[in-house]
Fold:
Amino acid sequence: MASYDLVVIGTGPGGYVCAVRAAQLGMKVAVVEKNATLGGTCLNVGCMPSKALLHASEMFEEAAHSFAKMGVSVAAPKLDLPSMMNFKQQGIDGNVRGVDFLMKKNKIDVLKGSGKILGAGKVEVSADGKAQTVETKNIVIATGSDIARLKGIEIDEKRIVSSTGALSLEKVPERLLIIGAGVIGLELGSVWKRLGAEVMVVEFLDRILPGMDGEIAKQFQRILEKQGFAFKLGTKVTAVDTSGKTLLAKVEPAAGGPSETIEADVVLVSIGRVPYTEGLGLKEAGVALDNRGRVQIDPHFATTVKGIYAIGDVVAGPMLAHKAEDEGVAVAEIIAGQAGHVNYDVIPAVVYTTPEVSSVGKAEEELKQAGIAYTVGKFPFTANGRSKVNQTTEGFVKILADAKTDRVLGVHIIGREAGEMIHEAAVLMEFGGSAEDLARTCHAHPTRSEAIKEAALAVGKRAIHM
Structure:
């Protein structure tokens, strides 16, 4: 029987990063993966392929609508969807090969099959009707999450699709109905909108992007509507009739009321994700779950069974790949006797649309609810030199700082490359920096990032260019 210091179940960003860090710390490590390729949802059917299609579709739209005004004359672009899907697959393959390389480089054993915990120190790996059991001093559950389903609406990944099917449609739907106005729905909606689909988004709540700063969400909705998105907020889908050539979705107000029918060629169910714990033997092993099906952990990622830990989407917190990665590093260091730690107050979030939306720290609503006195500094990209000359002036930067200490509590950005720009705010907040610190940091000119400096100046009511 093989014996290890650590066995990690799942090779998504949390799992493979945990394994690499543990190997760096001198442990003998194995990973268990039930799918044909490593990398989990993120690399195979999530973050990475969606970014490839977002980029490709943005280039398609730029060629059609933006090149001419910059003095670049090209023929009207033609969509070759199979080639675009091949571009996406090349990106997936490259990233997956990268994880394979990391496993070999760090001498991590890859055990192919479904993992099941038989108790503290034992993991069974099953594949093709055969099973092997390995011994290990420690186990990390990093099995991630699965798509959330709507009762009575069956996903076939052809006409009624999850995010997985929406990344591999064989043709551009004439009408795409998206159930859920969260990050995934809006990103995938923007891909197919650019490629020619009519997009309607139905959301149960009375706003888009639940959890994000309310002012940012309102402004972003206006931008998407300008791009051609249609929204039905405070509305629920109760059924989808699949009997005809087109899909007929029955919708009604979330609070109840008369229903109406929306016709669509494809329906994307994008109402979130749920922890993946199926077949892991958690109950039998004594690993406790909370009332939302997540693995219960203490502040050191330990479950209710000694020597078994859990990280990523399968535990509480934002379902983000980078949160899982940081937890993977932290738990590996804790197992090695070090002081691994994750600062949950400084985890950035990004919506990779055009323009992008990014945030780190608290939203204004959260500060109000907590009774924290704060000051606000805002700066629009219409007043930013680089954005003006590039004619990409949509959006703004918003900084929230503690009214007494000036410590930055939250930063929110809508704009081109907002996902890249948010990190200077994250670094500042990690070190407990103030708006004054940010305002007095020299920023290169001309850059979009100057808008962050100006928003920091605006906290003290002394923005220069506004």
